[in-house]
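Protein in question kept in full:
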Amino acid sequence: MMIVGLLFGVLTVYLLLGWLFIGALDRDIAERRGGVRLWIGVLFWPITVLLDLFSHRGAPRG
């Protein structure tokens, strides 16, 4: 029974970190992606963050 709580906690932290990283890099991500595409982007947030950095040539400025 403890393994379920541990997995849920790890998943929660993973998704919250994803929202924070995506929000810090690109504030307009919700406008470009909607619904299912946004959730897939958050679920695979390391890939989303890397693609966003490469497509915009670095972190946002100013």
Notes: The mean pLDDT is 76. The first helix runs from residue 2 to 25. The radius of gyration is 14 Å. Helices lie at 2-25, 29-32, 36-43, 45-55.
